[in-house]
Amino acid sequence: MEYAIETFSLTKIFSDWWGRDKIYAVDDLNLQIRYNEVFGLLGPNGSGKTTTLKMLLGLLYPTKGRAVVLGGDSSEPKISARIGFLPEESYLYRYLDARETLDFYGRLFGLERQVRKMRIEALLDMVGLKAVANRPVGTFSKGMARRIGLAQALINDPDLLILDEPTTGLDPIGTKQIKDLVLELAKRGKTVLLCSHLLADVEDVCDRIAILYGGRIQSEGRVKELLEQTGKRQITTGSISDTAVERIKQIVQNEQADCVITSVMDKLETFFIRIVAAAEVAAQATSGAVGARQIGGFLAPETRVENILDKLVSASVSEQTPPTEPSTTEQVRAVEASAGKPDAELLRELTEPVGPAQPRPVVKTEPVESEATQEEQSDRAQSQESILEQLTGRTTGPDKDEKQTDKSQGEAGDA
Amino acid sequence: MHSIWAVAVNTIKQAVRMKIAAVFIIGLLVLLGVMGVSMTGDGTLKGRLQSFVSYGLSLMSFLLCFLTIVVAIYSLTSDIKQRQIYTVITKPIRRFQLLLGKLLGVILLDVALLVLFSAIIYAITIYTPSFSDASEAELAEAKNEFFTARAGLVPAEVDVTKEVTSTYKKLEKSGQLDQLFGHMGRKEIIARLTARKQLERRAAGVGHELVWEFDNVKPLDSNQSLFIRYKYDVSVTPPDLQVYGKWFVGDVRQIRYGTKIETRIAEFDSKDLVRTFHEIEVPGDVIARDGYLAVGFRNVPLNNTVVIFPLADGLEVLYKADTFGANFLRAVLLILVRLIFLASLGLLASSFLSFPVALLFCLVIFFTANFSGFILESFDFLSENLADVYSYTLRYVIASLPQFDKFNPTKFLVGGRLLSWTLLAKAAGIMIFIKAVSLLLLSLLIFSYREIAKITV
Questions:
Q1: Is residue B338 within 8 Å of residue B62, measured between CB atoms?
Q2: Is A385 a domain residue?
Q3: Domain of A17?
Q4: Using CB atoms, which residue from A61, A93, A107 is nearest to B451?
Q5: Bridge partners of A23?
Q6: Residue ranges of chain A whose CB lies within 8 Å of a chain B CB
Q7: Which residue has the higher pLDDT, A353 or A179?
Q8: B307 - beta bridge partners?
Q9: The CATH fold of domain B203-321
Q10: Is residue A247 part of a domain?
Q11: How far apart are CA A268 and CA A256, in angstroms?
Q12: What ipTM was assigned to the predicted interfaces of this complex?
């Protein structure tokens, strides 16, 4: 089995009431998604992205052609047990609270009580909804519902994650968190199929993309290769003097090339995240979702192996974990990130500003927090080391932000 | 199994938290409370008990039927309409498991509510006599005729086909058919002639005797009394509306064959109002050891009329075959059988229809099933041409519906009649194991092949 998902001239025609063919929603689609790849399906509204996903998942039946998912039919329980799916909107049972919702999905997967309980707590923690876990999800905002939707897609520790417009309705922090998560999951050997029309999201995380229009693939390939402008180069430096700038200009002109020199701008996303992180440090109370904590323990076997959670699940997961790339210099790292093998260290740095350094006072304002279970307490104690590490990491904030800027700036240049 | 259970629990939570169940529960509680206090029936204790149990059980049954239909349909159609099914069906659960989970959830909810409400009805019924100031006679009447489960034996119908056919042929030859019966169809004429012939067998001229024989009379306790329940019809109404009679009950074979008298034959003189039900209490020891019993009636010369025992309910031998409590339990189980059928029906409807349409579909079937016996009967005498069309089409459709009126539990409890395990098993066999299972299989078939993501209208 070479591909995680493979379709053979997949076609979906929606017909009208009389049975006459009307709309070719998906037309002769041949898609190949390799294992451990982050694949982005792009296209304008109505281009057949969601229809394709629905056919992959057996929610719609193809008019012609065939889809093979993880080597079989996705409606087979054996196969669907390894798939996580987040639909275009989070369709949740309004009368269940967040914890019950996850419990219900956990039961569908036949997870043991113990495992279920641990994963639910870890996921609630991860999507930042622990404080509102006992509230019916019907009262959640769209973004909060989205987070629960994401959590249910991860509860079975899936090998293949199918995300339909994962970032709609999410605030920039949530968006970023999803992007980080996707990268993190890819690093752990998972395959991710992402479907979106928010190009920035796709660009940041995908290894390969296909652009759909009218149900047909218009273009397909590696993001890096599709976007690279071979005729241009970008140099980013630290603070240098005007004379140095003049000298660089001189050198470039000697090469017979144009040269534009400007100050580096923050991405609005980076700026926003920094401001909110600061507010969180200042212990501003909120009834909404709190910032991201650490990625669900059972999804991340290598960060805290001493954790009970990991002991329970790491056996199966760690086998699938790809060998980690040897980290070398900064330059190589950036290349790797966009080539789809995100470096662990860089990732952790990226996640840190909204990471588990979540200050305690905020959550203390929520009465629910006092109900924290025993396991959670011990869980905290065990991960205290890593929290400390990150707290100290926070003191080197500016440095970190700079790196981040470097990276985004680099990519912006590529575009 | 775990996934079926997860869906079932979720279905119950949905019914409870969306307050669908709450509406029914509160309504039923209030109504039962009011009825317990205000029901008086015909003024006697027995009448009061009868009307409470009758209305209480019917109301509970009706509301639970309605609740079952609504919950079964809502549960699946709202999942499809609000698309929660997208995230459910893509998990390792097969579609039949989802349907079975929904069914299990609805049935469990039904069982819980049935237990609750039947316990309330039972408690009120049992304690009503202690709180009423009824006389001894009324208490005895209630004990003998209400707090019991009496088996009723009716005389076997006499086969009169031969006589009827010959009479019909005779009339046809002599051309009297039109004169006597107008433009009736053959079927209807035969039916009329049959009824007439059978009635002849149940009429006693002045000074004549009628004897009915029964086998397999097996009372719960041989020391308990038997009851002969009867109703007279007369050819000439007596001025005082009274009919005199002489009854004898026992093993008449002893007299007929002149053997030694082992069991006694009881004799009674009676004087009763015409066209109303009467009961004679007979000691239990008149039954022969092999369960044989004969009941004889002599039309004494004091009467100046032919005495007729109407066909359906003219004469019955009643004996206590079980306790009231056991009978009540079976009545409740009979309601559960009905609910299980309706839950399957609801799922079938929602496997291809949207909520309002499915609801309408189910209600039509529910009400038709309530009157199916009546409908079948009334269609039996359609004119010849139409009858052919009918008997090959609609007849099968209506016959395939469950017959709620035939298996109506309240009519047993009100009359203090035995609702036997056999009848319950028969009802369960037909309504669950044949009809509900076929509905379920059909819905599985439809549900497995339909596209989930397409929204139905």
A1: no
A2: yes
A3: 3-228+265-414
A4: A61
A5: A14
A6: 54, 57-61, 74-75, 77-78, 80-81, 83, 85, 87, 89, 91-93, 95-96, 100, 104-105, 107-110, 149, 152-153, 156
A7: A179
A8: B204, B234
A9: Jelly Rolls (2.60.120)
A10: no
A11: 34
A12: 0.78
